[in-house]
Amino acid sequence: MRTVYLGTSEFAATVLARxxxxxxxxxxxxxxxxxxxxxxxxxxxxxxxxxARALGLELRQPESVNDEAVRGEIAAAGPExxxxxxxxxxxxxxxxxxxPILNVHPSLLPRxxxxxxxxxxxxxxxxxxxxxxxxLTEGLDSGPVGLRKAVAIAPQDTYGTLAPRLAALGGELxxxxxxxxxxxxxxxxxxVTYAEKITLGDRMLDPGRSAxxxxxxxxxxxxxxxxxxxxxxxxxxxxxAARAVTLGGFSSLGTENPLxxxxxxxLRCAEGALELLAxxxxxxxPMSAADYLRGHxxx
Length: 299
Hints:
Radius of gyration: 22 Å
Helix content: 25-40%
Distance between the termini: 59 Å
Largest sheet: 7 strands, mixed
Number of helices: 8
Shape: elongated
């Protein structure tokens, strides 16, 4: 099937690579423009742009996919289907109705519609998540679903370990949906939950919450976003790995938080304690908690 592919993220780049090796190799790839990135604010291409170049695919990076000129380029490519995965831009009329649009969504719809489904599944402590292939409509991830497959979430999964598994599955399911006619069924609105965009507040580790919740948050935002802890001097300590622990008598171990105990860095929480395993001091590099404690007084 002749296709045009719209995507931006590393997740979408994995799906694109799978399609490029199939009979549905995109005639055109559209992604977002290069943007400043990192401390040096140098222009960087989206992962899908890098992937498309490496795969020898025709690439466009318009400011708006909904512009008339871009719609003309899509039409000129003659697609039988438009494919979308982690594009990050709303597709509006008239493009929305020009041809069938299939969307790869990394959740078991109708659970976790929205911007951060993988992160929210991890943060909620879900036992499983998955990938859904749906027809794109005007609603937020509310279109009919054709294929859906579950993936178990392991106790130690982070975004960095779970997302690649989901991306590989997404590529397989999308190719399968294009290989043969697929029946699409409306979603059950009774099961809808929303995966809101990750905010600065989501990144902050609040000791007023339970240690289990904070461990899930660290795993959900590692390594692509990251979590932070406010120290007593007001500076921010990045946290790259942590685990919830139960310590008898922990409440009597002084008043500092976090607290160094027998070479371990512990954050007293409303329920239990969070052991910080890998951290990043302000302006420094990531390091183990043991290395941090050797060079820094617990704040």
